[in-house]
C-alpha cells in the first residue's frame, strides 16, 4: 500500500508539473525544482565523508554527503526556508553517501524541531529528508524524539555554548524504547556545524540501548568536532 501511494504521488506531481511548470529554485529557469545545470553543479560537489565520536562510551559514526559551501549551502538554505520539494532530490545524496560506506540499518529518525518553529516554517527539513529517504530505501521512519523546550538560536554560538544550549531541551518517546532494541538507527539532520545538536540527540537515543546509531548529515561545515 505504501509503495502504491508513493507511485501515485509521483504520477500526480508529474501531471501537476505539466499543468503548472516549476521553475528552478536556484536560477529560476523552467522545468523542475532544480534545473539540469544546477543539478549537475550540485552533483560535482558530492563529497561523502565519514568521521566518529565517542558518546557515553559508544563510538557514533557520522556520515555527510557534502561540504557546506557554494551552491550546496545556498540550495540547502532555500530548501529549509520554503522549497520543501527539494527534499526528494537532496535525499538521494543521503542514499549515495550510505551506499558509498556500505551502511546497513533498520530504521530512520531525525532531529526534531520545536512546535513553534515548525509552525512558522510549515515543515521540518530533517523530517522531510528522513521521509524521502524512507521511500527510497523502504525502511520505516519514526519520530523518536521531540523538542520539548525552546532555546536560543544556535547560530553565532561556539561549541560549548551550543552544547549547553541544547542540554535538556529534547525528550525521547519512551513508547519507542522496545522498538529500537537491537536496531541500527539512522539519525538525520541537514547541517552539521559543531555537532552539538545531533550529539545531544544521539546521546538520548543511545541511552535506550539500540544496537548502533549512525548520524547521516546532508552537509558538513568544516570546523566540526568529530574526528
Automatic annotation (TrEMBL):
Domain Phosphoribosyltransferase as annotated: residue spans: 128-223
List the InterPro entries. Answer: ComF/GntX_DNA_util-trans, PRTase-like, PRTase_dom
Q: Which domain of life is it from?
A: Bacteria
The family classification in the record reads:
Belongs to the ComF/GntX family.
Put simply, this protein is called: ComF family protein
Q: What is the organism of origin for this protein?
A: Candidatus Improbicoccus pseudotrichonymphae
